[in-house]
Amino acid sequence: MMPGVAHVRVNPGYFADNYLQMIGYAAHLGVFPDITGDSEDAPPSNEDIARVVVAALLNPDKHAGRQYRPTGPALLSASDVAEILSRVLGRKVRRIDLPWRMFLKAAPTANVGAFLVSNLRYYVEDHKQGAFALSAPTNDVLEVTGRPAEDFETTARRYAARPEVQRNFRNWLRSFVDFMRTPLRRGYNPERLDRELRFPMPPAPRLAMANERWKAEHGVQFRQRLASERFAMSQTWVRERA
């Protein structure tokens, strides 16, 4: 659409950071509140996502027209995440289902903004239906950066080193009080926010896994064909620039 201007699409899906926002409860209370059920995902670290973006920006001729989906190296369920947190924190961590209505109450104190929550509800439903497990994991982090994707345990250990996660009485008390006060909070109302911001609503919205075209376009075979086509396009763009 814009001759001489390259574009690269980076679509990472559901981040490891989304799970690790709850690491404080795991460290101090031994519970991992989860809003995605026990569906699977290959969550990428923020650092790997950033490395992919930076690599594309530093070498646009190589990546022009490409689409990347950074993921972690393995599919994980929330139960798997709880087991990894148990190893990282040196204590038993139990996964508990956090109802969406309770998450709406907890989100403000976790510095999760109302606009993000309004969008996150659709990600959560996609997650529960298996959208983020489709065609995952990928090799995009290795392909773009030359380094393999960071595994979830390595990412979790970095979060576990934060001061607020260290196991002491002060941190335990803060987590306990915060956990017990959550049901009493007012919380967000995404539907009201949508009305206030006048978000357009599709006449017949469907989540990803209810859309056969979306599933076909995000399957392994389509990704392989798309990568081949994008590579050919990038070579054409480079020749036109030369």
Name of the CATH class: Alpha Beta
Binned, the helix content reads 40-55%
- CATH architectural designation: Alpha-Beta Complex
SS element count, helices:
13
Class from helix and strand fractions = mainly alpha
For CATH, the homologous superfamily is named as UDP-galactose 4-epimerase, domain 1
Distance between the termini: 19 Å
Pick out its properties:
UDP-galactose 4-epimerase, domain 1, two-stranded parallel ribbon, 4 strands, 13 helices, two-stranded parallel sheet, 5% strand, single chain, 242 residues, mainly alpha, globular
Short overview:
This protein has 242 residues and is mainly alpha-helical. It has 13 helices and 4 strands.
